[in-house]
Amino acid sequence: MRDNVNQKKTEKRRFKTKEKKREQLHFNLLIFSLVFCILNLTFIESKTIGGDNRYEIYVFLVPTVIGTLFFGIYRKDYILNKYSSFKETYAKTVVIGFYLLQGILVSYLSFGQIASVLWNCFNKIEAKKNPTEIIICKVTDFDTRKNPTVCFKFKNKTEVFRVNSEVNKANYDRNPKDYQLEIAVKKGIWNYYIVEHWKLSKIR
What secondary structure, in 3-state letters, does 22-86 show? Predict the structure, then answer.
């Protein structure tokens, strides 16, 4: 009897030690994924305008769902152990909700970013095959707040370009109706256009 109790205690200690090592590994991977996500969104991802529902489905939704299922299966024993350690229904619901949200976040930062990088590569390859086009879009607003932007409509969708502080100062006294954007683009995939450069010009 005593041997069984000691064995269970030993197994629990081993389990806790193993989980601590796993948690440290997971934390390091999470930090790496977060840094990679920031680098991707800031430096790697091309500036695009346009859009298509297929992007949300195949580049965001599908990879995130697959990643959530993957991490759920991978951490099944740990999650079930946590779930069964609570007796109250509300506590079990909180556990499920917490690990589901955690799975979605981690999946987006890992599977989602990998899908985003791959899509960006294919989009660039497709854009290289197409000639540069100049499109004219009317300015709808100058947002001069903390993160200043120029707002405009392209194919019935609101788009924004960020501007520097010098341009932003000039925008304080400008009427959006008096300006338009001349945007040099190359058509990519799924109705997305890669922006090469743009300029603000006065029409009145």
Answer: HHHHHHHHHHHHHHHHHHHHHHHCCCEEECCHHHHHHHHHHHHHHHHHHHHHHCHHHHHHHHHCC
With CA atoms as reference, report the closest residue to 200 among 184, 183, 175.
183
Distance CA 162, CA 82 (A): 45
Q: Say what angle helices 76-84 and 62-74 make with each other, to 10 degrees.
A: 70
Closest C-alpha among 192, 148, 163 to residue 49: 192
CB 174 within 8 A of CB 142: yes
Range from 8-12, 48-52, 111-115, 139-143 carrying the lowest mean pLDDT: 8-12
pTM tops 0.85: no
pLDDT at 9 over 70: no
Concatenate the DSSP letters of all residues of 105-159 into one string. Answer: HHHIIIIIHHHHHHHHHHHHHHHHTS--EEEEEEEEEEE-SSS-EEEEEETTEEE
CA distances to 121, 148, 188 from 50, rounded to whole Å, are 17, 21, 10
Contacts of 111 (CB under 8 A, 6+ apart): 63, 64, 66, 67, 70
Q: Tell me: the pLDDT tens digits for 125-135?
A: 999 999 999 99
* C-beta atoms surrounding 77 within 10 Å: 9
Q: Which residue has the tokens 């903390």?
A: 146
